[in-house]
Amino acid sequence: MSTQEPVDRQTLIEAVVASTVGTTIEWYDFFLYGLVTGTVLNKLYFPDADPFTGTILAFATYSIGFLARPLGGVIFGYMGDRVGRKSMLVTTLLMMGVSTLIIGFLPTYAEIGVAAPILLTVLRFVQGLGVGGEWGGAVLLALENTPGGRRGFFASWPQAGVPLGLLSAAGAVALCEGSMDTQDYETWGWRIPFYLSGALIVVGLLIRMRIMETPLFAALQEKKEIAEAPITETIRQYWPEILLIAGARITENAAFYLFTAWAVAYDKLHLKLAPGTMLLAVNLAAGIELFTIPFFGWLSDHLSRRACYIVGCVYLLAFAFPYYLLLETRDPVWVTVATIGGLCIGHAILYSVQASLIPELFGTRVRCTGASIGYQLAVPLSGGIAPIVAAFLLKYFDNEFWPLAAYIVINSVISLACVLYLAETSKKDIVSSA
């Protein structure tokens, strides 16, 4: 059993709420870009390209955010282990919010030429840095305030900020798209959800400025045991875990963006469903995932982290072909069933468990650095390239869906192989593993 002392219940609730709300806001910003990439940004910032090339170029700028995330994980993981979890979280929130707000005011290619896609790429890179640092601090804020035996459940709540952020972003886009004609939406209406980010920054800062530092990190500060070189110490002691974490994340991260941002583009390029059908399906699935993520986090406390994760990998492997078969029916009901099955079960199992499994592999001195680097290292090779790979597969195989399903299967096999070599952490004493 863990020897971690229970914290005050109000402190625990405030920490979980602060981490979840902040994560929701940051993922709203990150997902918002992805949702309009294949439908608006490709036309306004790459207008000289044909629809396929414009979509590829737009998703290339989209992927820049993923390339920046490992760097953000290194920078802010270091900051989290040297300065503190709270300071890091305030900084990342500001970076994400301000960059998203600026995108809303960014002139198009028609107005300033090639400078428009360049500036768009720079802002997306800043977004990637911010979200790359956000995850480690958010889950540690919950994890390090939670007594042993309940860490899987409480640490999973910041993960629920992802579908909540997606739900908010998709809802804002759907509301704007559905309340005006296509020309108005593509001319100026798409900018409104980006403007909302300004108000969300204020809300997030007010909440995060109230929270205290985690008791485990505060104890290290009091004992003057803060890591002098957390990056070097992490790599020297935990490099196998970092590589295995990255491999274990591949299928979850890629599948999530295939089921969300790519699904919207897949609809526009291939399915041709009624307007709003795919966004409605994504919204509904995101709403349900708000409940399935904490449930699977709770389940990992009662079973084990690895067992739940293995089940998730096997599920995605088995569900890949049925998912695309259901989409090919073009029936809104079956499309919704496919989206719910992918997000609310396959993604939710893996994503919920990551919040406890990954940080618990590291000692407190380097927990933020190790968790952030391991978590973000997989992103460029999974979620970052998944929409681009999918677009090329769709084009190369002449709109056949089976290569897209095979792509999910391959990713799932890789992740399954990696998680089998990770240690079980659900009963680990994270206090003594300083």
Describe this structure in words.
This protein has a single domain, classed as MFS general substrate transporter like domains (Growth Hormone, Chain: A). By secondary structure, it is mostly helical. The chain contains 17 helices and no strands. Helices cover 79% and strands 0% of the residues.
What are the defining features of this structure?
Growth Hormone, Chain: A; mainly alpha
Strand and helix map with partners:
Layout: H1 9-45, H2 51-82, H3 85-105, H4 109-112, H5 115-143, H6 151-178, H7 182-187, H8 192-208, H9 215-223, H10 230-259, H11 261-271, H12 277-302, H13 305-328, H14 332-360, H15 367-377, H16 386-396, H17 402-419
CATH architecture: Up-down Bundle
> Could you tell me the mean pLDDT?
87
In CATH terms, what is the fold-level topology?
A: Growth Hormone, Chain: A
Order of helices and strands: HHHHHHHHHHHHHHHHH
In short:
The protein is mostly helical.
